[in-house]
Amino acid sequence: MINIVKQRPFRRKHKSFFVKWNIPVKIPFKTIMRWILLFALAFAFIYFLIYIFRSTLFKPEYYIYNIRYSAESVKNFDDPVLYKIIKNQAKWENYYVLKHFKRNDILNLMRVKFPVVKDIEFHYSQKNTLDVKVIFDKVDLRFRLWNKIFGLYKWNTFLLYSWNVLWEGSDVVELPWYLSGLNNLDWLFFNYSYEDFLLNVDIISQVFGDKIRLVYLPGSKRIAVFVGKSKVVYISLQKDIKLQMTEYDFLRKYDPGFASYIEIDLWSLEWSMAIVKK
């Protein structure tokens, strides 16, 4: 006897996958306008940058081939070394790079050799041409050594030319003839205070007035004051200047023989005593 077993037909089971999408039904109008505005601003900014670069940094006429110096600057001080620094740094450069990025570097280079330079201005006047104005500070004092004039500015001395006007209005101190042949005075304040020297010269000038000659004797730190044509007064810068000026003023007012003195030494003796020579 044969048993017959009936099998169900094989059926492949399939799994169903469902993905849920969260799609907003409606985007607010303000959000759309905000994004449009942001894209518009970004596009405008990029366009502006391209325009700026094309009209400034990449424009051939803004590259400097010619340099013109202000007549006022040259009149004040026209040392060729100073203007050569500007030329070497500015020529072949872009005007906008010079004005906004290199100006301070050039100014610092100039001040290394010429501290009296206060500022520098760049102006674009015409194709490939840079107008330069150098602004100088006031010179503290002048030293005359024979036919040479040296300017003094914050411990620094530098040669001035007779046709320059930078030194106009500043006091003049002469140096003795035995120093002739020197091309610089860098050693002048090696062991003497620059501030004290200026202060003492100012005090002496106030007491003696304008119609005098001041001769500085650096070896002994003395100043010889030539009053008129026949009188010289010796003052020590290592002693109290005000006391020496008080002593001179006393002699001038109360000594009957003062007019006949051709030489007055205010420093060699103690206070209230002076050496005079007729």
Which terms summarize this structure?
alpha/beta; 34% helix; 6 helices
Q: Order of SSEs, N→C? A: HEHHHEEEEEEHEEEHEE
Question: Largest sheet at a glance?
Answer: 5 strands, mixed
Q: Report the radius of gyration as a whole number of Å.
A: 41 Å
Any low-confidence stretches, pLDDT <50, length ≥5?
none
- Number of distinct helices: 6
Spatial separation of the terminal alpha carbons? 172 Å
Principal-axis shape equals elongated
Q: Got a strand count?
A: 12
Describe the structure.
- This protein is an alpha/beta fold.
- It is built from six helices and twelve strands.
- The strands form three sheets. The protein has a five-stranded mixed beta sheet, with no helix packed on it. A four-stranded mixed beta sheet has the order 6-5-4-7, with no helix packed on it.
- A hairpin with a 2-residue loop joins strand 5 and strand 6.
- Helix 3 packs antiparallel against helix 4 and helix 5 packs parallel to helix 6.
- The protein is elongated, with a radius of gyration of 41 Å.
- The protein starts with 28 loop residues before the first helix and ends with a strand.
- 17% of the residues are buried.
Topology:
Blueprint lengths: L28 H29 L8 E4 L1 H6 L3 H11 L4 H19 L3 E10 L2 E8 L4 E5 L2 E6 L2 E5 L11 E3 L19 H15 L3 E6 L4 E6 L3 E6 L4 H14 L8 E3 L9 E3 L1
Parallel strand pairs: 1-3, 4-7, 10-11
Antiparallel strand pairs: 2-3, 4-5, 5-6, 8-9, 9-10, 11-12
Q: Can you summarize this structure?
A:
The protein has 278 residues and is an alpha/beta fold.
